[in-house]
Design goal:
Bound molecules: S-adenosylmethionine
Radius of gyration: 19 Å
Shape: globular
Helix content: 40-55%
Low-confidence stretches: none
Structural class: alpha/beta
Distance between the termini: 44 Å
CATH superfamily of the largest domain: Vaccinia Virus protein VP39
CATH architecture of the largest domain: 3-Layer(aba) Sandwich
Number of domains: 2
CATH topology of the largest domain: Rossmann fold
Largest sheet: 7 strands, mixed
Strand order of the largest sheet: 3-2-1-4-5-7-6
Oligomer: single chain
Number of strands: 7
Strand content: 15-25%
């Protein structure tokens, strides 16, 4: 029997999720349900719950950060990998990464980015890339060993399908999953987790959610990055970012180190 609560949740999920853009992204049921349940619990009316859920889903999916045309990109990628010219493949990876703000900002420092990240703890043999976006396209810059295992998680289905095609063509032990990592934290063990440019946005979805996620991860090191400047470029966020990290890991005896790049403040957290 469907309870009236369940009916309200379902109605909200259908009403918000039916937007064409979300149908294309194939947002997981788990995400829609989580947002609907929480919006109904927190808002005084169905109308306000609907508004709140719409706003959150827009912020979570962030279409304004950009995307390539995945169909065309997959087609091009097939042709390039068949030709096998490594320079052309790297150029293509850079071009795809340039289509999303988070990876675009990293391009400037990509050549030395992972060298610095892995300097202290060594190159990981297994990685989970959380809320990965298009970051797995930087695999060729990571210097991973041949046997390295790479798992990537995102809620955007066409992006995940594209990443799986990429892993297959690269011939690496990589896999991308459509998974809301706040609802279902990854259970795979790994040497390292990446959580790039998303932790602050997670806090906007649900204050304190990073804490539970980071605790649940079965990894030795979490590389968390945050933007050092506001979107307008006018405000320095580095102090605020440090405080956020301190709050999230309060009560844990985890060691934190910081590495700074012009567009990215990375916290290396030893669990
Ligand atoms: C700001 S982008 C960052 C992408 C990547 N980490 C980077 O820095 O290049 C955020 C990404 O997280 C994904 N995302 C947002 N919430 C998520 C969740 N709860 N679980 C998994 N992926 C999520 C979005 O679809 C998007 O691809």
């Amino acid at each position: 029997m469907i309870t009236s609560d369940e009916q309200q949740v379902r109605e909200l999920m259908d009403s918000v999720g039916k937007k064409a853009a979300y149908q294309t992204m194939q947002i997981p049921e788990a995400t829609l349900r989580d947002l609907a349940v929480k919006a109904l619990a927190r808002q005084p009316s169905r109308h306000l719950a609907l508004k709140s859920m719409r706003r959150k889903l827009h912020q979570i999916t962030a279409p304004y950060l950009g995307d390539p045309d995945y169909g065309q990109a997959t087609h091009e990628m097939h042709a390039l990998f068949q030709e096998g010219d490594p320079d052309a493949i790297q150029k293509f990876c850079r071009m795809i990464m340039a289509s999303h703000v988070s990876t675009r900002e990293r391009l400037l420092v990509l050549d030395g980015f992972y060298l610095r990240l892995f300097d202290e703890h060594g190159v990981p043999e297994s990685i989970i890339d959380l809320a990965c976006g298009l970051n797995p396209l930087s695999l060729r810059w990571m210097g991973l060993g041949k046997k390295a295992r790479y798992r990537a998680y995102d809620i955007h289905a066409p992006r995940v399908a594209f990443l799986n095609a990429f892993f297959q063509m690269e011939g690496v032990a990589g896999q991308a999953f459509i998974q809301d990592i706040l609802v279902n934290p990854p259970l795979h063990t790994a040497d390292a987790a990446f959580l790039f440019k998303e932790a602050h946005r997670f806090e906007e979805r649900e204050t304190g959610c990073n804490r539970d996620l980071w605790r649940a991860l079965k990894v030795k090191i979490i590389y968390v990055s945050l933007p050092p400047l506001s979107m307008t470029g006018r405000h320095d966020l580095t102090g605020k970012n440090r405080k956020l990290i301190e709050r999230i890991i309060a009560g844990q005896s985890w060691r934190v180190n910081e590495i700074n790049f012009p567009n990215e403040q990375v916290f290396v957290i030893e669990k």
